[in-house]
Every structure is written in structure tokens, then in C-alpha cells.
Write a structure and sequence with these properties.
Blueprint lengths: L8 H30 L4 E2 L5 E4 L2 E4 L9 E6 L11 H18 L3 E7 L3 H11 L4 E4 L5 H4 L6 H5 L3 E3 L2 E3 L7 E7 L5 E8 L8 H6 L26
Parallel strand pairs: 4-5, 5-6
Antiparallel strand pairs: 1-10, 2-3, 4-9, 7-8, 9-10
Length: 233
């Protein structure tokens, strides 16, 4: 933590007003980015992806659930793992409170992982989450949206992630957005990876306004699944 300078209320107010100008600049930039994001071109989704759901096999179009917009959380959960990724779980905790608001604003939210459906459902129950969660096991979906990687890709020492070549892992996180036209055509409109997803994690935004900030040696090193923190907390 930065050692603070102790000043009078008037001096603090002057410093706070100067910082407010930077905050306003950031807000205006965020608005410009959002507008630019909405203006990005779209790509028609033509591959017939199949997902395993509690209701049976479904296509990507089915995941919209009657709405025109779909957010996919690429949740890291390798088929061999016994639990979902810790940082993706942190992300998922935040989404739960937004579900009712998204659904009433023409947006469906669905988690997609490569783990078998039975593992997904068991972990979902453990976490107490409500969001729809499906398995892409046996599908190209994760690979095509660059959040899972084949042994051949990993053997090269780097993979295409976050729009560049980078160090590879079996699974990596992301968010993808799709739009469904009135004729049923599905389009891919946006994907975000790595730290690009931080703004949907409200706890980070709260921590960023505290004196100690995120207080981490490396990104997310303090995060635990919500049922793994000490009970005294």
C-alpha cells in the first residue's frame, strides 16, 4: 500500500477533484469503447455446434432461449478436472446477480465448458448457481473460439489466444457474444479474453477503490471458490 500523505479536508478535496477529472475521462472512454464495440462487424455462424444439456442435445441457436442476444461464458473446466476453474468461478459468482436483469433486457447468459455434463451439474449444485450451463464435449466450439487447444497446438509452445500468439494451456477463459436474427441466423459479434473480462467482476471494482487495492502478487492469487474461504470471514 502506498504510504498516504495526511492533509486537511480542503487539501483532500482539491486532490479529489483533480482525480475526478481523470475518472470522468475514463468514463467517457468507456462509453466510446462500448459504442465502437457495438459497431464491430459480425460473422455468420455456419457450423452446427452441438451441446449436451439436461434437456438433451441442443444447438447454439437453442441457447438463446427466445431472446435475440446471447452471452457465452467460456468457463474453464477440463474434462479431467474434478472442479471448475477458481477464477472462472469468481466470474460466475458475479453473473448470478445479473441474470434476472439480463433476461429482462433481451439477453440470455449461458456457461459452456468441455467437462462432461454430470461433472458440470455436480459443481453447479455445489456452488449454488442458477445460470444455464452446458457441455461442449465432443464439439469444436471451444477450439473455434480459442479457449481450448489441441495437443498439437500446445506442442508448438504457443497458441492463438486473445488475438495473438501466447503461452498455451489446455483451457483459458473468455466471453463471447452472439446475435440471432428474426430469420434464425446466428452471428458472432464479439469475444473478450484474459483481463478483458475484468469489468464484469464487481469485486475487483470495489477493491480498486480501497487503499490496499487488489493486494495481489500475481493476478487473482488471493481468490478462492466462495465455499473455500475461512468460515470466520
Amino acid at each position: 500500500m502506498i504510504t498516504p500523505q495526511i492533509v486537511s479536508r480542503e487539501e483532500w478535496l482539491d486532490a479529489r477533484k483533480r482525480h475526478l477529472e481523470h475518472e470522468k475521462e475514463m468514463t467517457r472512454m468507456r462509453d466510446r469503447l462500448a459504442q465502437e464495440r457495438r459497431a464491430l462487424p459480425w460473422v455468420k455462424v455456419e457450423k452446427p455446434y452441438v451441446f449436451h444439456t439436461p434437456e438433451g442435445e441442443k444447438g447454439l441457436s437453442d441457447l438463446f432461449d427466445g431472446r435475440s442476444q446471447l452471452i457465452i461464458h467460456h468457463f474453464m473446466f477440463h474434462p479431467d478436472w474434478d472442479a471448475g476453474c477458481m477464477s472462472c468461478s469468481f466470474d460466475a459468482d458475479h453473473a448470478e446477480g445479473a441474470l434476472v436483469h439480463l433476461a429482462n433486457h433481451d439477453v440470455s447468459y449461458v456457461r459452456v465448458s468441455r467437462a462432461p455434463l454430470e461433472k458440470i451439474m455436480a459443481y453447479k449444485k455445489r456452488m449454488g448457481w442458477r445460470a444455464r450451463w452446458v457441455s461442449s464435449f465432443g464439439s469444436d466450439f471451444n477450439y473455434d473460439y480459442h479457449v481450448s487447444f489441441t495437443p498439437e497446438e500446445l506442442a508448438k509452445g504457443n497458441v492463438f489466444y486473445n488475438y495473438r500468439r501466447d503461452e498455451g494451456y489446455d483451457e483459458l477463459p473468455g466471453l463471447s457474444v452472439f446475435y440471432k436474427g428474426t430469420d434464425g441466423t446466428v452471428y458472432h459479434t464479439y469475444s473478450s479474453y484474459a483481463r478483458g473480462n475484468e469489468e464484469v467482476m464487481g469485486a475487483y471494482m470495489y477493491l480498486d477503490i480501497t487503499p490496499k487495492g487488489r493486494n495481489e502478487n500475481k493476478i487473482m492469487d488471493w481468490i478462492r471458490r466462495h465455499d473455500e474461504y475461512p468460515a470466520s470471514q
